[in-house]
Amino acid sequence: MSCLKIKSEINFNAARHLQMKYYYPSVVHCAYYSCIQLMRHVLIFNIGLSDRQMEEDRKEYYPSLGVHQYLIERLTLELQNGDCDWKKFHNEIEELRKLRTRSDYQDKVISENNSQRSIILCYSIINCLKTFFIQDSVKSI
Fold it and tell me: What's the pTM value of the predicted model, to 2 decimals?
């Protein structure tokens, strides 16, 4: 198992644990990074891109995007070629990204509902990635 996949599972489990401790902003952060880490895992181990190839691809085809936005767009493109509901994936990861931005950078309260929503989104995103690319169920969830 890759370190990225392990870290993704750790972050998801941390999000659930932090939810029970009422650390709502940290829940959102961990849920988001759980998805980002699994997305990188998929691109490296299932799609076959190296870090260098991803960086070159991002600079050539997505020069205005940051690394996270590149991961989102690149995986959405991969999902469009298959059976997965790519629109749902894209909408959910964008919603989670916005929650993470609000949680980490904005002077706004992160509610229990925001926190719970981030866990639900994370679960759905991870399940989509694992079902479509990794072919195993979400065991840690």
Answer: 0.92
